[in-house]
Design a protein that fits this description.
The structure holds two protein chains of two kinds. Chain A is an all-alpha fold. Chain A is 79% helix and 2% strand. Chain B has a five-stranded mixed beta sheet with strand order 1-2-3-4-5. Classes of the chains: A mainly alpha, B alpha/beta.
Chain lengths: 379, 105
């Protein structure tokens, strides 16, 4: 791009002959030198401006890369916290990993299930026993009804026996009383049997009740402390998991915020790196101006050779080599860049490798990254 | 709960069908108390392949049946549990107490 009207790649016409008077060679060279000086002042300002832009951009990039580095470290720390938080949990001030928690909870649940199984078995035993007791109580109730019936019959028989006994004694007869006595004896035997039955049933009911009592005692005696402790532990574990989850959300939220910052910073970095465009344009202007000057000098040299038949442009440098070298060394004494100076001298001496050497003077750094690149200290 | 009994020389098989839950306790108790004390075989197998559902009282009844079998020196096995019944047996780790087989032993 060429936006500077003073700089053009067009070849300048050599100093033209004036129709009035033809300036001599010396005048032409002085005019050219003045033009060169003017150009060099402008170019120096351009180069200085480019240098300032490069320097300021480099400083800006340095700061932005430092910020990026800090943000990346913060993210690292956050991810490390997240990893710790996702694999560990704190219960009763003790850090445990999730696998342990899961194993503990599994153990607790297995114990609870075992207790439920035990309760189920004992509860069914209780049900079976109560069923037996219920059946026995029903039998006892029937037996008691029978006893009541026998008692009533005995009572009637006793009355009849008393009547018959009185009558027998008055009539001198004994048989009726004997029959009644026999009946009473039979009833008495039945009562005894029933009594035995009731006694037997009572014993079984008693045993049933004792069995029930024993089962209830077993259930009541079951130590529920492990279950209660297990519940407490599970509550704590769940609370700790919820806390962990909240912490993870906070970390992720914070990481998202940092990511946004990184994104903005990368945007700013990209903008800052556009100094390269600006510098390239400036250096192109300088290059074009220098080319223009080189062409102008060539033309002036050609014009000078045309006026002096002793001079030939092709061997001009050989012809004035010693003078040029003398002048060059004198000027270049003040030049600080010894490498550039040497190349310049070499070029004047005729070893035309300057252009090639210039190309290779500053090699591009390798793009191969090593594992230690993280250790590079930014500016 | 439905069931049918099948016997061979050494084993008495009780094949259950349907659900085993609290309301079946009378029938179950009768089955156990009438079968185990009188059986001549050495072992008893509860075949659960057709049992669809079991609850905690069913688990309790099976454990009581196992206890009754032990009291009468019989070997007690569970076999061929499927679906929910299999899951409950695994969850309650019944196999720690009673020999359990995927197929009839």
């Amino acid at each position: 791009m060429n936006d500077n009207p003073n700089m053009t790649s067009q070849t300048i016409e050599p100093i033209k002959d004036s129709p009035a008077s033809q300036p001599d060679v010396m005048t032409q060279w002085i005019a050219l030198s003045l033009l060169q000086k003017n150009f060099f002042m402008t170019l120096t300002a351009e180069v200085q401006e480019t240098s300032d832009v490069v320097e300021n951009s480099a400083i800006g990039l340095s700061h932005q890369f430092q910020s990026l580095s800090h943000l990346a470290l913060e993210q690292n720390s956050r991810i490390s916290d997240l990893v710790d938080n996702m694999s560990n949990i704190e219960i009763d001030d003790q850090v445990q990993d999730y696998q342990n928690i899961i194993n503990s909870m599994n153990r607790v649940l297995e114990e609870m299930v075992s207790s439920i199984v035990l309760f189920s078995k004992e509860a069914m035993r209780l049900v079976f026993t109560l069923e037996e007791v219920n059946k026995d109580v029903c039998d006892m109730s029937k037996a008691l009804e029978n006893i009541d019936h026998i008692n009533k019959q005995t009572h009637y028989l006793a009355i009849n026996a008393a009547i018959e006994a009185k009558s027998s004694r008055s009539n001198g007869q004994q048989n009726s009383f004997d029959i009644i006595a026999q009946e009473i004896k039979e009833l008495s035997n039945n009562t005894s049997q029933l009594s035995e039955q009731v006694k037997d049933k009572t014993k079984r009911v008693s045993e049933g009740i004792n069995g029930t009592y024993s089962t209830l005692q077993k259930i009541a005696d079951t130590n529920l402390d492990p279950q209660i402790e297990a519940k407490k532990y599970i509550d704590k574990a769940i609370r700790a998991i919820v806390d962990n989850s909240n912490t993870q959300s906070d970390i992720m939220r914070s990481a998202l915020g940092t990511n946004e910052e990184i994104s903005k910073l990368v945007g700013r970095l990209t903008m800052t790196m556009q100094f390269q465009d600006f510098s390239k344009q400036k250096l192109q202007h300088v290059d074009e101006a220098l080319t223009f000057l080189m062409n102008a000098i060539d033309k002036q040299l050609s014009a000078t050779c045309d006026q002096d038949q002793n001079l030939n442009q092709s061997n001009l440098l050989d012809h004035y080599k010693d003078d040029v070298l003398f002048m060059a060394e004198e000027f270049l004494d003040d030049c600080g860049l010894s490498k550039v100076k040497d190349k310049f001298i070499t070029n004047i001496k005729g070893e035309n490798e300057f252009a090639e050497q210039s190309k290779n003077a500053y090699t591009t750094p390798s793009n191969d990254l090593t594992e230690n690149d993280n250790d590079i200290e930014l500016f | 709960m439905n069931y049918h009994i099948q016997t061979d020389e050494n084993t008495l098989h009780i094949h259950f069908q349907g659900r085993l839950q609290f309301e079946d306790h009378k029938e179950f108790k009768k089955l156990i108390h009438e079968t185990i004390p009188k059986m001549k075989q050495r072992q008893i197998v509860f075949n659960l392949s057709k049992m669809d559902f079991i609850d905690s009282s069913g688990i309790g009844m099976i454990l009581l049946a196992h206890e009754t079998a032990k009291e009468h020196d019989k070997t007690f096995h569970l076999a061929s549990a499927q679906g929910q019944v299999k899951r409950v047996l695994e969850l309650t780790r019944i196999s720690d107490l009673i020999a359990t087989y995927n197929k009839t032993p």
